[in-house]
Amino acid sequence: MPILKEAAEDFTIQAREAQKVIHSFADLMSQISEVEAVLGMLDDGAFSLWSVTDEASVEVEDRIYEMEGKLMDMFPSEGFDFHLVERRGRPLEEIVSLDHFAVYYFR
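User: That's the sequence. What structure does it adopt?
Assistant: Structure tokens below.
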């Protein structure tokens, strides 16, 4: 039974850490008014993190990349796969299935 308990504790710690990383990303992206949503999941040991805008100017892209860099500095031992989605007036659900993401928010 101790092995099962240790496995459950390890899983709980990993889940909390994953939630912390994704929420930190959402907090950073919330500073950019053009970012409408943040999607995140842990995929094969790396975080797949998506920023959603309707359209992103070069300046907005630069601010997004800056925040991604800050996240990498905050969690240097984690792996990241960042994505920027421009909806261009389309509903987000037409572009990506939200069922695959553990955490997301909409502005």
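The longest strand covers residues 46-53.
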